[in-house]
Protein: M24 family metallopeptidase
Amino acid sequence: MSDVYAARRSRLLERCLGNGSEAALVTGAANVRYLAGHAPADAALLVGPVHDVLLCASDPFDTASAGRPAGDLRVFVLPGTEGDPAVAGAERAAAAGAGSLAVEEHHLTVRRHRAVGAVAPGLRLDDLGPAVEQQRLVKDEEEISCLRIAAEIADQALGELLESILVGRTERHLALELERRLVDHGASGPAFPTSVGTGPDSGLAGHVPSDRRVEEGDFLSVCLGADYRGYHSEIARTFVIGTSPADWQIELYEQVFAAQRAGREALLPGTPYRDVDRAARRVLEAAGHGDRLGPRIGHGVGLENGEDPRLAPTAMGKLDACVPVTVDPGVHLPGRGGVRIDDTLVVRPEADGGPELLTITTKELLAL
Amino acid sequence: MSDVYAARRSRLLERCLGNGSEAALVTGAANVRYLAGHAPADAALLVGPVHDVLLCASDPFDTASAGRPAGDLRVFVLPGTEGDPAVAGAERAAAAGAGSLAVEEHHLTVRRHRAVGAVAPGLRLDDLGPAVEQQRLVKDEEEISCLRIAAEIADQALGELLESILVGRTERHLALELERRLVDHGASGPAFPTSVGTGPDSGLAGHVPSDRRVEEGDFLSVCLGADYRGYHSEIARTFVIGTSPADWQIELYEQVFAAQRAGREALLPGTPYRDVDRAARRVLEAAGHGDRLGPRIGHGVGLENGEDPRLAPTAMGKLDACVPVTVDPGVHLPGRGGVRIDDTLVVRPEADGGPELLTITTKELLAL
Structure:
C-alpha cells in the first residue's frame, strides 16, 4: 500500500515541477490523507524537493492501534506548543534548497499563508490550486472497493431500520440508530450527519433531525452514508408510513424516481457533467418542480462527501470512467413534505455494463 | 433574544469604526452564530455599514422547524448555484457605500479573500482579526446556563454508562452509546467525537475509539461533551475495570487528580492563563511526567470546543469572571495506559464562591 501513496506523491511533484514549483505543501485534510495514507489533525505534507515529510502538531501515531506511515515518507512532530505544521513545512522546504513552493491557496487562510511566507523570505510561494483534488477524481479499484463496502454498510443499516417499528419514534432517534448500525457493520463512523425528515420536513436536503415523531401518513426520508477507511458512501430513500400512500405522494415519488433514473442512466464516460444534471432536472421541470430543485443533481464521493465533480447546470467537464458520484434529486413541497432518492454509483463504460450501482436498497415506494 | 444578537453586532461595528473600517464581513461559523443566532453552512454575515445582512448559499430557514432571524437582521439567499456568500457580502457593502471592509483573514482562504477583493475594487479590505472571538470570551448568564445544561447532559450520559456492564464491549460501541444518551437527554448532538480509550490506549487525548474490548484490569478513559443550543460542554473521567486497581494505577490516578485539582483551584479572575497551566503542570512534572504532558492544561469552551483562552505555558492574558474553561490534564504511559480527568468550569470571583464546577460526576477512582 505504501507504494500507492508514494506513486501519488511522485505524480504530484512531477506536475509541480512542470509548473515551475520545486516542492508542494499540501494542507487540505483529505488531500493529505490521499497522499500520505494518514491525516492527523492539522497536519501538513511537504512533497519534495528531496524527502517527503508529514508534519504534525502532535504525534498522531502515539497509540497502540495506529500504524506508522511506511515507505519513504518521514514524519516530523513539531516540538513545543505553538507551531503550525504548514510553517514548519515551508521552513524545511527552504532548508532543503527549494526556491519555490506551491501551496493550496484554497485551503490556507490568509493569516497562515502570510506566516508561511514570512518564515522563509527567500522562498517563492506559488498556488498549487486544486491539483490534488483533480488527482483524486478518478479512483483506483482499491478505492472503489472501499466505496463498495461503504455502500454495502449503509444498505445494511437502512435495511435493518426498515424492519423495526417506526411510528412514534423521533427523527433524532432514528438518525442515531442508523449511525449506530453503520458502526455495527464496520464503518468507522457516519460519512456525514445522518438526515431523517418526516412529514412536512421529509425530502429536505440536509434536514437536521428534530424531535418530531413519525406519524401515520407521513413521508419519511432518510439520507445516510458510511465512512469505510476514509471513503464515503451516500444513499437516500423515501418511504410512506402507514397502509397506503396518498395520490399526491405516489405522484411525487414517481416524478423524483423518474428523474433519478434519468440521471443514473446518463452516467457514461464522456458525458458532460451538466448533461447528467440536465437529464434529471428536465424531468422535474416538466412536472412543474423546476423552482424547487437544488443547485446540483449529484456530486463526486471519495475521501470527502461532496467532492468533485459537481453535477450542476454550469459545471464544466466530462465524466471519466471510475469516477464515483451520487445522483440525488429531491423535491420538497412546503408544508406537505417531499421525496429524495440518492444512490452512489461508479461511472463505467457501456462495454463494462454501464454505471455500477453501489447502493442497492430498493427504490420501490415502500409503505411501512 | 434578538436584541442580544443586535447588541453584539453593534458592539462589533463600533470596534470596527474605531479601527477605521466601515463594515465587517464575518465568515467564521461560530462567529456568525454568535452574532446572528443562526449559522447556516457557509454563510457570511455583513455587519454595517447600513443594514446587517446574513448571506446564505441556500435558504436555511426552509424547514418547518427552523425559526427565522428576528429583529433588524436581513437574510439574503444567493440566487443561482455558484455564488460565495462572502463575495456577495462585499458587493453589498460596496453598494451600501462602504469604502472599507474588515474581513476575518484567519478564516478566509487566500482564494476567497482574492475573490472578495475582486468583486468591489473600490473597497479596501482590512483585517478584522479575532475581534469576534475576543467578544465571545466572556459569556453572559444565558450562555452559561446553556453550558450548565450541556454539562448536566454529559454527566447524565456518563452516569448511565457506568451502571451498565462494560467488560467485553468495544471502545467504539461505548462511544456510540454515550452519544446516543447525550441525545436522549436533550443534546442536539455530541460537542465533539466521543473518545473512549481502554487498556494501553487509555488516557490518550483525542484517541479515536477502536474495536478493542474492555478487559479486566484495564484503565478506561472516556471524554465526551454535549452540544446544547450550540454550547459545548466537556468532561473526561478514568475508571478501573475489575475488582481492585493495581498500585501503579492508583498512584498515577492520584497524581493526575492532584494536578487537575491544582488547576481548578487556580481559576480565579485575574490569574494569568499560564499560571493555571503551571499550577497543574508542576504537580505532574514533580511526579516525573513532565515530558508526557500535552501542550496545554485546559481551554475555553462555548460555541466551539477548544476556543480561547488557551491555558498553556506561553499563553498571554488573564482570566476574567464568567469565562468557561476546561481543566483537563492527562498522562499516558506507553504500553500501559493512562489517566485523563477533565471538567468544565466557569471562572467566578472568590466572593461568589470561586470557580463554578459544571460537570459534577465524581472524580473518585471508581473500580467498575
